[in-house]
Design brief:
The protein is mainly α. The protein has four helices and no strands. α1 runs parallel beside α4, α2 runs antiparallel to α4 and α3 packs antiparallel against α4. The radius of gyration is 27 Å and the shape is rod-shaped. The termini are far apart.
Length: 193
């Protein structure tokens, strides 16, 4: 194995294994693309889970805020309490919308294309019967597949960046809402005295 298990983070070189021909280099490129794809999908799943959690927390807080409004004396909109409450609801709505937007980013194709892969293999099988031609065709198949995976990884990385941006904005809105909720509670407690 050319790289250690933490590839591509540290990219340390293992001198014990060096490819001896172009086919092994193509195979190494293909293996690295598959490894990178697995890491990107793991990061994708983590972002999805965090977005769902943020969405749930924001929804619960918004439900609590609306329950407060319907069961208590409503603060005047132009009072300090009313203004803080409106900002709180707005931030929670923004957090919910951004969390849903984070979850909905899904325009990334899959590198597993059944028909295309089948055609590539059939071309390889139906190709020239000589072993040299077969070896060259096999090398080209590996190289083309590695390119397809690499292109998909690039697209997945860009979509992952969008997801991360939406999640960060959503969590920032949730944090700001929590601050305004604390301010609202403090003002409510002091207004009782």
């Amino acid at each position: 194995m050319l790289f250690n298990a933490s590839w591509p983070k540290f990219m340390t070189f293992n001198k014990d294994w060096l490819p001896t021909d172009r086919k092994e280099m193509a195979q190494m490129s293909y293996d690295n693309a598959i490894r990178e794809h697995a890491e990107l999908w793991d990061a994708w799943k983590v972002l999805e889970a965090k977005a769902q959690t943020t969405l749930a927390i924001s929804g619960v807080l918004e439900a609590a805020a609306f329950a407060y409004v319907t069961t208590s004396t409503k603060p005047a909109i132009w009072s300090w309490q009313g203004s803080v409450f409106i900002i709180l609801i707005t931030l929670l709505c923004c957090s919910i919308v951004l969390s849903v937007r984070c979850i909905r980013v899904a325009s990334v194709g899959s590198p597993h294309r059944g028909e295309e892969g089948h055609e590539e293999v059939m071309f390889l099988i139906d190709g020239n019967d000589s072993m040299t031609a077969f070896s060259t065709l096999h090398e080209n198949l590996i190289r083309d597949t590695a390119k397809r995976w690499s292109r998909n990884n690039d697209a997945l990385g860009k979509a992952l960046g969008k997801k991360a941006k939406y999640l960060l904005l959503s969590q920032n809105a949730l944090i700001a809402a929590a601050i305004f909720a604390a301010l609202f509670i403090v003002m409510f407690v002091y207004s009782l005295n």
